[in-house]
Amino acid sequence: MTNRRDFLKTIGVASAGAMLAQSDLFAKQLMAKPKQIGLQLYTLREELAKDAKGTISKVAQIGFNHVETFFNYSGDASKDLFWGMKPAELKQVFADNNLKSYSGHYQLNDYLTPNNGKDDALKTQIDIVATLGQKYLIVPVPPFGLIDKMTIDDYKFMAEQFNKAGELAHKSGVQLGYHNHFWEFKPLQGEKSGLDVLLEETQKDLLSFELDLFWTVKAGKDPVELFKKHPKRFVMWHVKDIDKQFAKAVYPAAAQQGIFTTLREVKFTEVGTGAVNFKEIFNHTQDLQNIFVEQDQIYRDDKFESVKMSYDYIKNNLI
């Protein structure tokens, strides 16, 4: 016959076991890796220009679950189209191919330029994002004319503008985001970089970040350290690889020689064939929502074979 002491001991052990099981499940959920793989369509920009619908169909056939758009805003609604298609038409093409689009890259040159700040492009593109059913409006670069001249004050202005834009975007159910290259890591004031300014001076709920793993590693930075230092900021990644023959970090040399000279020292390759340690990075997916294959330049004749190689590596080895 079980006495009261044995009964309580049994209950205590059972409760502890249940708590441990729940804790383990919670930890696994925190580290769960995304099961969907996306493609930044800029990778296939030449193919899209020739045959947009056919290219999108081939992307779906490879196995991609979603795509990230890119958009060249000029202010002329008759010309600002996606390969001749209005946003609603493009959304239907995605649906016809069972593809989602959670985010897109958009241009805010005027809005982010000091002594300008015009928000026409911002308002127009928020509407486009909403029409496409996207969640994220991603800004991929500082103002084009300032890329090689950005100062701490310029980044501070960008941060201020992002906070305002984030509030406006929220009214349409859209989240603002920023995508890095290597120049945001340039030391500008002591060791402080432009990316430091954007992370420190924007509100977490108003600006998310899409970390480009290629450019981060190429700048000599460790993505994992960024995840640890800035939790819940890097919700999307561009997954792309560095050719092993071009693995050397661009800094500190890039700080002296300028951006366009530095770009000569850059070469891309298919995911899993280069220098980036993706397996270590993919052990830190606690904040991750979406991943995208991207390759700025493809050197193979068959561009679709290239993106399939990257897709297959991620599916079979990383998620």
Notable traits:
two-stranded antiparallel sheet; globular; 319 residues; 42% helix
Characterise this structure:
The chain is of the alpha/beta class. It is globular, with a radius of gyration of 22 Å. Helix 4 links the parallel strand 2 and strand 3. The chain has an 8-stranded parallel barrel, surrounded by 5 helices. It has a two-stranded antiparallel sheet with strand order 6-7. It has 2 domains: 30 residues; 284 residues, Divalent-metal-dependent TIM barrel enzymes (TIM Barrel, Alpha-Beta Barrel), CATH 3.20.20. The chain is 42% helix and 15% strand.
Topology:
Elements: H1 4-30, E1 38-40, H2 45-50, H3 52-62, E2 66-70, H4 87-96, E3 100-105, H5 120-132, E4 136-139, H6 152-170, E5 175-179, E6 187-189, E7 192-193, H7 194-201, E8 207-212, H8 213-218, H9 223-229, E9 234-239, E10 241-242, H10 254-257, H11 259-262, E11 268-269, H12 278-281, E12 290-293, H13 303-317
CATH fold naming of the largest domain: TIM Barrel
**Annotation field: number of helices:** 13
Mean pLDDT over all positions? 92
How many structural domains? 2
- Computed over alpha carbons, the radius of gyration is 22 Å
CATH superfamily of the largest domain: Divalent-metal-dependent TIM barrel enzymes
CATH architecture of the largest domain: Alpha-Beta Barrel
Morphology: globular
What order do the helices and strands follow? HEHHEHEHEHEEEHEHHEEHHEHEH
Percent strand: 15-25%
Compute the separation of the termini in Å: 51 Å
Structural class computed from helices and strand pairing:
alpha/beta
